[in-house]
Amino acid sequence: MGHRWSSGAIAALAQAGIEPRGSRWGHEFVQARFVRELVNRRKIYPPGLRQTMSNTLGLRQTADYTTDYVNQREAARALEWTRPFVEAVQGGVRRR
Predict the structure, then answer these.
(1) What percent of the chain clears pLDDT 70, i.e. is strictly above it?
(2) Under a CB-based contact definition with an 8 Å cutoff, are residues 2 and 56 in contact?
(3) Residue 93 pLDDT class (50, 70, 90 cuts)
(4) CA pseudo-torsion sign 85, 21, 32, 48
């Protein structure tokens, strides 16, 4: 789930000519620049996508790096958030 939005967001950022200073696309960079540049500033993507990355990244970090678990309801909700994000990014990248 986290991988899909990050791959889509990276493709959208690269398409817009935005790349990290080094060679690493960190989650924090991707999330911050996608929202700041492509949602807020350029208005390429709808404001409803702002929270998708932070919400799903939080769940992924919980599942991967803590002893807590993500329950089925939380995982299903993350899929509900992620699908429209991926669809919007796929459409945006295709239009360019």
Answers:
(1) 91
(2) yes
(3) low
(4) negative
Q: Match 């309801």 to its residue by tokens.
A: 73
Per residue, the 3-state secondary structure of 13-56, as one string, reads: HHHCCCCCCCCCCCHHHHHHHHHHHHHHHCCCCCHHHHHHHHHH
Q: Which two tokens stand for residue 22?
A: 């080094």
- Structure confidence at residue 36 (pLDDT): 96
Asked if pLDDT for residue 61 goes beyond 60, the answer is yes
Q: What is the spatial distance between Cα 1 and Cα 96, in angstroms, rounded to a whole number?
A: 25
Which residues, 6+ apart, have CB-to-CB distance to 21 below 8 Å? none
Three-state secondary-structure class, residue 33: helix
Asked whether the beta carbons of 29 and 57 are under 8 A apart, the reply is no
Under 8 Å between Cβ of 9 and 39? no
CB 70 within 8 A of CB 59: yes
User: How many CB atoms are closer than 10 A to CB 61?
Assistant: 14
The full set of domain ranges for the chain reads 2-95
